[in-house]
Amino acid sequence: MILDLNGRLIQLTEQIDLDNLTVNVEKLNKGNAQSVYDLMSEKLQSPEFLPRTLYNKFNIEVISTTDGASDSLEYHKQIVDSGWSGKVIPSFRPDAVVSILGENWKYEIIKLSSASGIDVLDYKSYINAIENRRSFFIEMGAVATDQGVFSPNTHELSESEADAIFQRALNGTATANDERAFIGNMLMEMARMSCEDGLVMQIHPGVFRNHNALLFQKFGLDKGGDIPVSTEYTKNLRELLNKYGNNPNFKVIVFTLDETSYSRELAPLAGHYPAMKLGPAWWFNDSIQGMRRFREMTTETAGFYNTVGFNDDTRAFVSIPARHDLARRVDCNFLAQQVSEHIIDIDTAHKLSYELANGLVKKAYNL
Amino acid sequence: MILDLNGRLIQLTEQIDLDNLTVNVEKLNKGNAQSVYDLMSEKLQSPEFLPRTLYNKFNIEVISTTDGASDSLEYHKQIVDSGWSGKVIPSFRPDAVVSILGENWKYEIIKLSSASGIDVLDYKSYINAIENRRSFFIEMGAVATDQGVFSPNTHELSESEADAIFQRALNGTATANDERAFIGNMLMEMARMSCEDGLVMQIHPGVFRNHNALLFQKFGLDKGGDIPVSTEYTKNLRELLNKYGNNPNFKVIVFTLDETSYSRELAPLAGHYPAMKLGPAWWFNDSIQGMRRFREMTTETAGFYNTVGFNDDTRAFVSIPARHDLARRVDCNFLAQQVSEHIIDIDTAHKLSYELANGLVKKAYNL
Amino acid sequence: MILDLNGRLIQLTEQIDLDNLTVNVEKLNKGNAQSVYDLMSEKLQSPEFLPRTLYNKFNIEVISTTDGASDSLEYHKQIVDSGWSGKVIPSFRPDAVVSILGENWKYEIIKLSSASGIDVLDYKSYINAIENRRSFFIEMGAVATDQGVFSPNTHELSESEADAIFQRALNGTATANDERAFIGNMLMEMARMSCEDGLVMQIHPGVFRNHNALLFQKFGLDKGGDIPVSTEYTKNLRELLNKYGNNPNFKVIVFTLDETSYSRELAPLAGHYPAMKLGPAWWFNDSIQGMRRFREMTTETAGFYNTVGFNDDTRAFVSIPARHDLARRVDCNFLAQQVSEHIIDIDTAHKLSYELANGLVKKAYNL
């Protein structure tokens, strides 16, 4: 039984056989809704569903959270200090300090000053503070950054241009164009820092977040209502890829919600620039057809080795085995089709099945 | 034999077996062209091809026409008055009174005044007249409206803004931007009216109509030469969906000619907003692959129940059984694939096959 | 063994059996890299790999080069004068004299004057010179022109507008908008000339060329780094198709790198305008899935007879048989699927398999 907390297709299949996790497979309906709910509540409160128990049962090697630039990472410390053998690492997500028109941006800058111990008064100190926080995240085990941007536009500003925008942001007079330019510049800066400190860069662009204003006002951020928009990569990523795309110290993993960019833009770019890799079909992490289309549209141009395996982004911990199981089945189906059409041989398929499930993701994130 | 009056693929298949309608199945060629033409002419003039006879033979439950805002619907009256048991209902299509730059717009406003009995002198009386006509259409059996717009942009104007544009339109000084803003506002108004009077709203956007100017000058409107354009929904429909998309009295059925919007925009929007449903693959109503792609790209995100069955938009009456036959086969093929892949079970497939052929379209249009 | 010099998927398959060209089929790896390289070098220097020998072994009927407007075509003359029975014809590619912001444009204009014997001083003499060169190319066997444009925008300028831009280009004061307008006008002019002299027009739009500045600076033009961009055809081609699309003397073959335009724009346009044909899946000339998608997305709307067969654009001479072999297999697979689904019968499939491999391309290019 695959439960998707984002309200998408609920899948029922008899094929799931999770060790020790026998699930009562029956269709959800009016008659059994209450008993299924009760069973789930009971299970979630049982010792066998405690997070660390599940972590071991699921045979997880590493989990990465995403955390704001100023996060103290105190719970990561607690995990480390607890002596537990599991690995839970942070990722550096600076969206809140980068989106200069965000409602709480000034408060975020105060938090950034406090967390870094650097008085953030201008663009230069702001960059220093971000570099400082990246160092701290690396100390705490981080291997990657992540940025959720509306557009993947990349364009470097001069320090004086960037500082002028930063000052307008502090004064509350920054415009939408200022924000767009500032974010485009910060993607360049984050890439530069990645070349220096080795954090893998991730970009998740092209979502119209909080599309349903009513839902957002009632329940706040990240409650659904994120709708994809058409996203352009060829022109937008050019400056970043020109400056850093041939740099052997740099890796940038690009995601999309816009399938039309797979074969037209993303696969050619990833096939060309050594530093660029394609993230999996983000919006389709539970979708058989969606994941199949990702492979069909990218493999002939970018190959398998320019993709990064299945880096599941679930917020539902118990969904992890089912999601990975599904993703692996889809990839193996794709490989089987390639074997049956004599495009690859069975030995290559065996090797690739391991790479797509496990090998590539470790290489991509230097794990 | 599937004849497509729009000049697309002509399909010949031995599988069609229409009750009492034995068709001579052979390939069209130079040799038989004249005799096929003669046979068709003869058949069309025979009593068994009279519209009401066909209506019964085709086992049709209801046909809906689309009619201008000021249409007297006299033929609908005649049908009702004739005591015939068939059901032919109108749909309210206000394009001619909404497109303020249309060549005959002022004449359309005069007709609107006359039909509604309301002197249309300003925006307020214009809205009153449209509400009046919607009431009349409802009396005559209408269940839906339809709007063909170039862009699905929705944005409410203040009454004074709308009236200023309306006055410029009357004076012949309205601009292209005025028309765009006016249409965006009228989509909002039509949605509001639908919440009040219960007519299901339909939007058919994204066609460059009368692309071939020569053809248009010689033969007039709707003679082919309608070419799709890329169409954006996420940003354009946001204002309408934010204001009315959670309203239980409201249903909006959105169509597209732009397949790239299926999985990126339309399915996520229909999956999220209770009021929004997806119309079928409009431009591909005779296309096996086109209809298959519609299901493949929308089902995992929007599900089946956010689609509305096959609301064939043919202008060729005799094509109705063949088109529905084809659509049902494609849907059943899709369901069969889902069963064979253990995504749904056979009982669910049986239930869905009925829903896709008959149930959903009746629910969607409150029939 | 399919070698793709553009760095895309390298395919290894045991199915290739090229007459007299026994190739050692084994996977490329560290162990055999040197010996495979040595074998290839040896073969390329052997008499059996001389171009004319291969031409005969490959059973080629005609090869077309693309040549700048001012090219002397001296090597074409040499081939003709040599008395060899093979057919190598030029195509007229005026990009260098049309792109008025090109680095060497003024030098290209000097070359154009010299080649045509017409002093190119203004727009009028420029057009005369181009017409003159087209005549020369036709004398030398050319059947087609080709234009690589960023956008397929077409819009006719008045002679005075065109001349004003031409003068600004000569003075070095032309802007990006000037160039865009000039190219849009030259597509119209080239179409007009094609109606007059019968050369088939080809348009290859939508590539961001030399995306990787570093690569370009080091190695120059056409060394990879060409990345597709989203391309609009419905609005952009309208003026050209309205003026010339119904002209029986005119044929325009349109290519794309943007798959999203297949079913939305290109197939409807080619289905509607008699003069327009679809070129094959240009960027996917070695891609099984890419070629399959081309057929799936275009056939139901444009049919087979509005496509032009497989006009391979390779720059790797020895790849010709493998590429055509692959393209033919993909097309035959597609036909087989249509037969198995009773959409076409086996006789039609046999006829189409010949047309797609040989017949259509000869008709398209008047060979």
Q: How many angstroms separate the termini of chain A?
A: 31 Å
Compute the number of helices of chain A: 14
Q: Indicate the proportion of strand residues of chain A.
A: 5-15%
Order of helices and strands of chain A: HHEEHEEHHHEHHEEHEHEHEHHH
Mean pLDDT of chain A: 91
Which structural class do the helices and strands of chain A define?
A: alpha/beta
Alpha-carbon Rg of chain A, integer: 22 Å
Task: Tell me roughly what share of residues is in helical segments of chain A.
Answer: 40-55%
Which pair of chains has the greatest number of interface residues, and how are they split between the two chains?
A-B, 29 and 27 residues
Q: Which overall shape of chain A is indicated by the principal axes computed on the Cα atoms?
A: globular
Q: Give the quaternary arrangement of the chains.
A: homotrimer
Largest sheet of chain A: 4 strands, parallel
Order of the strands making up the biggest sheet of chain A: 5-6-9-10
Number of strands of chain A: 10
Spans where pLDDT lies below 50 across 5 or more residues of chain A = 1-24
Give an overview in words.
The structure is a homotrimer of 367-residue chains. Chain A is an alpha/beta fold and 367 residues long. In chain A, 49% of the residues lie in helices and 7% in strands. The first copy, chain A, has 14 helices and ten strands. Chain A has helices at residues 30-45, 51-57, 74-81, 95-98, 105-116, 123-139, 159-171, 176-197, 213-219, 238-244, 261-272, 288-302, 320-340, 346-364, and strands spanning 63-64, 67-68, 88-89, 92-93, 147-149, 201-205, 207-208, 227-228, 252-254, 276-278. In chain A, the strands form four sheets. The first copy, chain A, has a four-stranded parallel sheet with strand order 5-6-9-10. In chain A, helix 11 links the parallel strand 9 (252-254) and strand 10. In chain A, helix 5 (105-116) packs across helix 6 (123-139) and helix 11 (261-272) crosses helix 12 (288-302). The first copy, chain A, is globular. Chains in contact: A-B, A-C, B-C. Chains A and B meet through strand 8 and helix 12 of A and helix 10, helix 11 and helix 12 of B.
